[in-house]
């Protein structure tokens, strides 16, 4: 059995037998983890396993910002620029990172190393500014901290 | 004022997230006690406690529970951990520091309402918190707290953690259920309310994390004791999240009617650099803004309502005198434009329209007529959408214009932002110089 099916089996047990479609987000997230991004083929695979139409998988995959329907860099860096973070200086960090990486918002470095984008409130306003690096939260950012974090991404 | 801590008393303790630590502090004794009570008596205690929903709407929890139709089964409980309202960051600490307190609250709520399956819907960005909670749930299963025999009684309870994937709208209760059913997060028309037609069409209670974390204390100490900690129709303490230009941002557990000015000026150490307060948003970014002269007010739900704003999610956003409020509002509006689900026309079209006008005002490309139009657009969204996101987007705009209109007009006259480059005042580097370790 493939890794995808083995792990999906565990996930499906959390939902009633006649409600397996409820596992759509976890299934897509797993697909993203195993295959890198949600290509139409991966969406189709999730739909097949959950007994839904591929359109159902696609509408979910394209609705949620953490589900990636396009290939992205080896690392995804997401900086919050919402009100709490901006009041603590995240705009300056945002501009500096774009300059440093030579990308616009949502862009990927030419070497495929980092995709960088701004995101909405991460629920870290008390420890602002905050950023996700490959879904791991980093808080109380300074320019120096961010540069060090980016430098560590290979 | 009492210094009773209900929710945060164990935060910062070594291994506070483990079952062993929770039990050492008397954890699950409330569940034990509840299992010996008549379920209806538990609901009565919660009613008597004046516990009101901590997610934003402030609805009476006991009353919500009593809306479940008597004869329809199964029923479900969804725990709302989608904490996404800008300025709000409390539920993540309950989950990270004291997940068993939440699990115990869930178990009591399920026993009281004859519910055998519950889901915690946690926002996707809280990966670590979801892992901690999942581990705590596994511990509770292994210890026989959850599973086929709730603490050895003849009551089965299954609890699962369901991670979202990044959508503010999924914190709205009906969108949360749609999302949990494996669909995009489109809010449903109400009525019917979730208590009658909810998850998979069955009666469902949806409660916020902080709301449920209070339940063990209420069972242990009685509803009246909880009510006595608060004021009027609001019982207990609250986790207030303070962010922005204060010296010590963070989460503060205070009586539900604590004074806003005292919280900012005393508990949080006032404003960085000793500057003056300009504006405060008291209940998450949707709440109407208060001007500096209005902040000497109780934060109790009805008191803030009387002050023309709302207690909402307890997220207090503080802006000092150096803040450009047009820029602040533009950023808030951008959030609602990004997060509108697109189902209702006024919100889908209106939110980016407001963002665009604000952007033009900030950058000196707008006329005084645009400022009027901004108000018209906000008024056209409010009350005309399926869910409250439309109102949430309109309220900041309406209130900023009501209280700070001269600042908008100054931008128009000045042909741009009079504050120039540094419209946010504080930088993290300047905060570092004055702030030691964070409280949480």
TrEMBL record, chain B:
Catalytic reaction equation(s): a quinone + NADH + 5 H(+)(in) = a quinol + NAD(+) + 4 H(+)(out)
Domain spans labelled NADH-ubiquinone oxidoreductase 51kDa subunit iron-sulphur binding: 326-371
Alphabetically ordered keywords of this record: 4Fe-4S, Flavoprotein, FMN, Iron, Iron-sulfur, Metal-binding, NAD, Quinone, Translocase
InterPro entries linked to this entry: ComplexI_51kDa_subunit, NADH-UbQ_OxRdtase_51kDa_CS, NADH-UbQ_OxRdtase_suF, Nuo51_FMN-bd, Nuo51_FMN-bd_sf, Nuop51_4Fe4S-bd, Nuop51_4Fe4S-bd_sf, SLBB_dom
Enzyme class: translocase
UniProt keyword annotation of Iron-sulfur present: yes
Top-level taxonomic group: Bacteria
Enzyme Commission identifier(s): 7.1.1.-
Cofactors demanded by this protein: [4Fe-4S] cluster; FMN
Family affiliation: Belongs to the complex I 51 kDa subunit family.
PANTHER family attached to this UniProt entry: NADH DEHYDROGENASE [UBIQUINONE] FLAVOPROTEIN 1, MITOCHONDRIAL (PTHR11780:SF10), NADH-UBIQUINONE OXIDOREDUCTASE FLAVOPROTEIN 1 NDUFV1 (PTHR11780)
Known function: NDH-1 shuttles electrons from NADH, via FMN and iron-sulfur (Fe-S) centers, to quinones in the respiratory chain.
Full protein name: NADH-quinone oxidoreductase subunit F
Highest classification ranks of the organism: Bacteria, Pseudomonadati, Myxococcota, Myxococcia, Myxococcales
